[in-house]
Amino acid sequence: MAIHSSYSAATLRGDLFGGLTAGIVALPLALAFGVASGAGAAAGLYGAIALGLVAALFGGTRVQISGPTGPMTVVFASAIAALGGSFQMALAVVLVGGVLQIALGLLKVGGLVRYIPYPVISGFMSGIGVIIILLQLAPLMGAAPSPSPLRALAKLPDTLAELNLQALALGLMTFAIVWFTPMRISRYLPSPLLALCLCTLAAVLLKWQVPVIGDIPTGLPEFHLPQFSLAQWSLIFTLGLTLALLGTIDSLLTSLVADSITRTRHKPNKELIGQGLGNILCSFIGGLPGAGATMRTVVNVNAGGRTRLSGMVHALFLLALLLGLGPLAAQIPLAVLAGILVKVGLDILDYRLLKRISGTPKPEVIIMLSVFALTVLVDLVIAVGVGVVLAMGLVTWRMAKTAHIHLEDDELLDVPDDPEHPGVRLVRLSGPLFFGSMAEMLDRMDKVDQVLDTHDIVLDCRGVDYMDLTAVFAIEDMLQKLQHKKLRPRLLLDDDALCQRLLALQSAVFTEQTLCMSVEQVLERCRTTGKRISKP
After folding, report:
1. Which of 16, 30, 348, 456 is the most buried (most CB within 10 A)?
2. What residues contact residue 85 under an 8 Å CB cut-off, 6+ apart?
């Protein structure tokens, strides 16, 4: 790994502290996800180490911390259940998912995430912040953590009934240290790490009875060979594709959050390749699959992490615990971690938009609030999917409003020498013609052709800046309808490429007689056809 010439001692210190703090936060999460998946606590730890190290080395986001995540754990647990409890075949799902992620990266699919609108990102970020806070309420009070924010809220009365004042004191003390530590100190010793050391030491010396991380698995993982079954191949591939898509969205959204905090830009396709390589390694060592983890990434950045070295330190710290240093971390109180994470949750809220929400257009606010609510109450990926669909609908609606159609007389198109030809009526079309605007355009055209007083109608498309296939077919139907009413329709274009594209369709209405490239051409064809035009 090449280190840039501007890499300083301060940056190194930040990367070490950031990676160490992220590793400490990742430890209980990895163990918990391993247990929740049904593969065991060790599988969660193996996945955090393998994916965290490989993604840090080969990924495209410098400060990203990768490891097992909630959504990926749920899919992996579902895979074990769907495959009859076969852990080896579930690892085949992880292998397929990793290969597909690499394929998505090579196909440059990752760049599409940059088109996610800001209200969607804002709602996602604020939702993640609230989730972090809700999930830490129980550990902060010394109670057992809940697996989801909704359950955390539902169990709040029970949590209050089980309140451990010593744990609450530790958590509040941790939060106060993280919040009030001056920047001149945090520059050399990050406040989360300072709070972790001081409060853990206080709990040990005072012999307070509070929940701690507890025993940590030790020893290197064994080699596992994923097993494939032709009878189950369809299911394995489907679950692998689900893992790949979920991991892709999860990782790239975390990359966007990291970009927002650090004011940098990640390389999405490289990130997908790094994530895919990491998950492939997980499949061979019996590790849980994962993705870029938003909470751990934010912890890393807040603690000083600035380069990919911080992600490597996070993984190497977990490896050191696996190789025998586990007892040192086993005594860390969960309330201390909760105090750190509550501050992280507050920091990740998107105050930039929240402060200006009164002046933000209502449609954007609705999108942001929808994504926020779905993130907290339903699912992260569903929230982003719905947000993107709403944003696309808003853009479609706004673009459709810019399309216009109106009937007008044009002296340039007057044909006075033909007594049965009172003139050529012009219907001007302007703006983008696409699937979102054509329904309204057709309704307007139905009203226009009811007041026409001539045989020749020209659809002037010179003001059209875009025409998709839906619009092409709609215009074809429009011309056929006009011909059925014994009218002579023509299209006036100024784009030769569009003209050739329409001719290539070999339509009965898109012909050299109906497609005109100038007003003069329109006049000439109107004069030459006159009474001689055949009525359909």
Report:
1. 30
2. none
Task: Kindly give, in sequence order, each residue whose CB lies less than 8 Å from that of residue 259, ignoring residues fewer than 6 positions away.
Answer: 61, 265, 266
Query: What does the H/E/C string look like for 28-75?
Result: HHHHHHHHHHCCCHHHHHHHHHHHHHHHHHHCCCCCCCEECCHHHHHH
- CA dist 202 and 277 (Å) reads 42
d(CA 99, CA 89): 15
Q: What is the pLDDT of residues 237-292, one digit of tens each?
A: 999 998 998 899 889 989 988 998 888 889 999 999 999 999 999 999 999 999 99
Q: Is the CB of residue 371 less than 8 Å from the CB of residue 128?
A: no
Q: Where are the beta strands (DSSP E) in 275-345?
A: 291-292
Question: CA-CA distance, 289 to 383, in Å (whole number)?
Answer: 22
430: its two tokens: 């302007």
Question: CA-CA distance, 112 to 105, in Å (whole number)?
Answer: 11
Residue of 387, 59, 80 lying closest to 248 (CA atoms): 59
How many separate helices (H) and strands (E) can be counted in the chain? Answer: 23, 7
If DSSP states are collapsed to H, E and C, what string results for 75-116? HHHHHHHHCCCCHHHHHHHHHHHHHHHHHHHHCCHHHHHHHC
One-letter amino acid of 263: R
Read off the pTM: 0.70
Ordered DSSP codes for 278-308? HHHHHHHHTPPP-EE-HHHHHHHHHTT--SH
Radius of gyration (Cα) for the chain, nearest Å? 31
Residues 6+ apart with CB under 8 A from 299: 18, 21, 22, 25, 65, 192, 340, 341, 344
Which residue has 């001539």 as its token pair? Answer: 454
Residue position matching structure tokens 């905090």:
261
pLDDT tens by residue, 447-505: 665 555 667 788 888 888 888 888 899 889 888 888 888 888 888 898 888 899 899 98
Tokens of 79: 């895979």
What are the structure tokens assigned to 444, written together?
């307007």
Tokens 């079954």 sit at which residue? 229
| Residues near 178 by beta carbon (within 8 Å), at least 6 away in sequence | 191, 192, 195, 339, 340, 343
CA dist., res. 8 & res. 16, Å (int): 12
- Angle at which helix 294-302 crosses helix 308-320, to 10 degrees, equals 110
